[in-house]
Amino acid sequence: MKWTKTLIPTLREAPADAEIVSHKLLLRAGLIRKLAGGVYTFLPLGLRALRKVEQIIREEMDRAGAIEVLMPALQPPEIWQQSGRYETASNVLFKLKDSGGREWVLSPTAEEVITTLAANEINSYRQLPKNFYQISVKFRDEIRPRFGLMRAKEFIMKDAYSFDTTDEGAMASYQKMYDAYTRIFARCGLKALPVEADTGVIGGNYSHEFMVPAEAGENEVAFCEGCGYAANIEKATSGIPKTTAREIGAAIEKFATPGVVTIEALSKAPYSVPSNRQIKTLVYIADSKPVIVLIRGDDQLNETKFAAKTGAVATRPATVEEIVPLLGAKPGSLGAVFSGTGILP
After folding, report:
1. Which of 61, 67, 91, 285 places its Cα 20 to 30 Å from the Cα of 292?
2. Residue 17 within a domain
């Protein structure tokens, strides 16, 4: 097609709100245009590039034996309430009402729809395994959309869902998707690093994310060049440097710390207790129940690991108003001794 017969509105300079190189180039080359924060139009060249990526994905999904479907973006809230995610995922859900007052949800993902479909249409184990995938528009209520297409309110996503009769079958399906993703990134010319990841509210005990190293990246990854271990920071594990006892069998010494409410303050004179010899006491609310978390003074709580450890869907730090009636002291003056509540070391 001739340039004069299509639309390629290039720009000499990128708009001021374009922060990263990819966003600037997409705009300057005339591939996309912003309609509103987190909402973009794909122009002719951008759409052609998108279709080529979609074609690579389709070829690899078909090669892996997956079946393409197309599920609705407009979904009834009942299926989300049944899964329990209507509330736990409410921070990203677009909720709306039609002219008759009926509530609806705009799809950020499709687990609820595909499991409803499978429950209604798959009647025998003889119909399994099945692996369904789609490439469709999704919606997430991003509080701060940024980086162009990378964090948008409306975006295009490929998602796949397998149904198997055994754990071994599920792992075989998982491996097929793992291999397919590896081939997709390779064909797109991207050096992607598969890293162990947290499963989040979806559940399960096995998950990988494919990370592409980039200066504009927001996720941190732990990677060992020696052994090849890779995990995102929410999942990564490591050895904790040992702290030896000052004197085995030494008597416990009690001393007053008036006005000292932080680990750092206690590590300084006149107390001089190293932070790695202190215990930090945190109070969290896990699914409406208080939990005391004990960690070494020089460590930080990973909230994703905390949620996985407790099995809670919703977690948050407790407020001062919640802590004082529960433990009789304010944050900074807490300990787990005789607390009478759940303790998570």
Report:
1. 91
2. yes
What tokens appear for 226 in the block? 């020696």
Provide the domain limits for residue 81: 3-190
- Determine the pLDDT at residue 61: 98
pTM to 2 decimal places? 0.75
Q: Kindly report the length of the chain.
A: 345
**Residue 250 covered by a domain:** no
Residues 164-213 pLDDT 10s? 999 999 999 999 999 999 999 999 999 998 988 876 656 566 788 898 98
CA-CA-CA-CA torsion for 114, 120, 121, 125, nearest 10 degrees?
90
Q: How far apart are CA 280 and CA 298, in angstroms?
A: 8
Q: First and final CA of the chain: distance in angstroms? A: 65
Task: Tell me how far apart the alpha carbons of residues 106 and 109 are, in angstroms, rounded to a whole number.
Answer: 9
**Residue 255 covered by a domain:** no
Looking at per-residue pLDDT, the higher value among 36 and 228 belongs to 36
Q: What is the mean pLDDT of residues 216-224?
A: 80
Each residue of 266-282: pLDDT tens digit?
Answer: 888 888 888 888 889 99
Give the three-state DSSP class for 85: helix
The edge-to-edge listing of strands for the beta sheet with 342-344 is 315-317, 279-286, 289-296, 342-344
| Co-location of 81 and 98 in the same domain | yes
| DSSP string over 230-268 | EEETTT---PPPP---SSTTPPP-----TT--SHHHHTS
Same domain, yes or no, for 34 and 88? yes
Average pLDDT, the chain: 88
- Output the six-digit token pair for 52: 């080529």
Tally of structural domains, the chain = 3
Same-domain status, 173 and 127: yes
Residues 227 and 297 in one domain: no
Name the domain boundary from 165, 190, 215.
Answer: 190
